[in-house]
Design a protein that fits this description.
There is one protein chain. The protein is α/β, with parallel strands linked by helices. It has one domain: Rossmann fold, CATH 3.40.50.1820. The chain is 45% helix and 16% strand. Helix 4 crosses helix 5. The longest helix is centred in the N-terminal third of the chain and has 23 residues. It is globular.
Amino acid sequence: MSERLLSPTPGQMRDMMEKAIQRGTKGVKFINARAAEVGLTPKELIYDEGTLKLFHYLPQADEIYRIPVIIVMATTNKGYLFDLIPGQSMVEYLLQEGFDVYMIDWDPPQKREKGLRLEDYTHRFIPRCIEEVQRESGEDDVNIIGYCQGGVLSLIYASTHTDGPLQNLVCLTTPINFEEMGLTRTLSSEDHMDVDKMVDTLGIIPADFIEAGFEILRPAQKTAGQMRVWDQMWNDDFVRSYRAFNRWSEETLPLAGEYFRDCTKQLNWANGLYNGTVRVGGDVADLSNIKIPLMAVMAEHDHIATYGATKALMELVGSEDKTDLVLKGGHVSIIAGPNAVRRMWPAVNEWLGERSV
């Protein structure tokens, strides 16, 4: 009886055979396919300064919230993670919900930009982009959504520009306590990395070095993903999503050397964001200076910005109006994965919507 129960039915056999055939035929197309099309939501480039790109996404709703939203992307990756493919695009979702959306995105820094410092990002790039958004939108106030290191830059800006136009801040998987960054902290410690020699020798920190740092945190992730996509090769939606995520993960960006040196010494080694000792442009970035409404979204299983590293934000900011949201998922999946679509996007939409009129 047990053997009869374990034997597949004729219907199951037909399904297994059909999927096996589709794996073979679609696998050939998968191997020969061009790079996935990503970032398809219509947008305009409104400011361009070397590594810095500022985009304005075209509105998709009849009624628009008064305060525009600026997404600040992490400096190691391209911003189309927020606009991966239709249906997995937070940008598309926010536009349809009535937000006026801009994005601070990054290109590989040019050789002449090797001397960019942390303060160039927080005291020049972000303020300059805010000025462009004010000019484009006709509004004085702005909201910011910062992702990972983009959240770090946004927090430093907010804590050192307390009289500025920033009204609301959303931080997504943003590390604060770098002592809790696990293997990342260990591998990049003073004992294992001579950051001065690296920067003085290279000028620009190569993308391969940055990508290797990510891969060492999850050494089997790429192989596991390849095995899973083969198993799901018959599933067009899964394959399309996988190809988009895979393209994004393979387009890691290099970093300006001096910026890398500043971040390594001030954020990682000195744990300055947590200790309130980060110095930029003559200012000290003390998170208790931040009084505006703030929302922090953290991933329970984040292998890059661990939950332990991100949760400290709530206790350090001076905001009375502050909200935290902890989601199951990882560093990337909470931005464009199913959990993001069902929980993170609606939560951010509701939180910002109430404060953007």
